[in-house]
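JOB MANIFEST
job_type = single_chain_structure
chain_count = 1
residues = 339
[input]
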Amino acid sequence: MLLFLYPDATEQTGEALLTKLREAGLQGQLVAERPRRVVRLRGAPQSLEWLQGLPGVQHALHALKPFQLALKTSEKHKTTIRVADHSIGSAEPTIIAGPCAVEDPEDLVSVARTLKRNGAHLLRGGVYKPRSSPYDFQGLGREGLELLADAGRTVGLPIVTEAVDERSLEEIEDIAHVVQIGSRNMHNFELLKRAGAGRLPVFLKRGFAATLEEFLLAAEYLLERGNPNVMLCERGIRTFSDHSRFTLDLSIVPRLLELSHLPVFVDPSHASGRRRSVAALAKAAIAAGADGVMVEVHARPDRAMCDGPQSLEPGAFEPLAEQIRLLASVRDGQREAVQ
């Protein structure tokens, strides 16, 4: 249920409305946005007339989608997330880059310097690695997290890394700037609830067999627990195709931007599994409207302990970053001309 307040309703009016709802045993969440304020409601009675008679409410509307907090309430409704000195979801495309897994500290700092010099906004690196085989490299754990934090501090980049369970999430919350919930854990609802109650922005990857609705409902778990800082990331889905690791579903990008106010990212590295495809898919993602990309960059991909074949070499990152910025400026310029 959505309650649309009058355009001139103040924040105080919204708070008074929430108090009235709580007194009636209902749960509401105020969304402060322009040109009006909207309250999303759970446990609403059947009577729209009662709701529309509350102070400040212009009209009430049954939500047409099962996800309410992730849903746009107007065309201009867009969430921006501040991480360090960068606003994610703003006009400037966000570039997140780094190795799939934290390994050698000198290689990590070397890559981080290249990324910083060429305009990356966040440094990624896996320290807890959920792997298909129990014999594959599982990450350095807490040691790797501290190495990642040291590299970030050295070059001046905030860090993002993946949590695989509640214990790893607690460690990450102490050190990182953004926590990632990976594709394999998109349906881990207890982890989603815990991350939703946490203080860090959440980078949520789409499950490789998840529908759009399932993806947004996973985000709903985070939002419902009180965390408004959620990013969505398409990273490829499993299909019959065998020419790439996964099939990058770029068609979901404009649909997510149409339905949701949350920033939308694309991970072309995991989707393709081939470094030669990464740049083309990253640029296609920006052309499709994505707010940013996450790409893997490794100092020595041929020696990487995890996902070397899909990792860019540092020298390939500079032209890609420049092309992403140029493409985004052309895209946004055309959008403004149409409007």
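[summary]
The domain at 81-338 is CATH 3.20.20.70 (TIM Barrel).
The chain has a mean pLDDT of 91.
exit_status = 0
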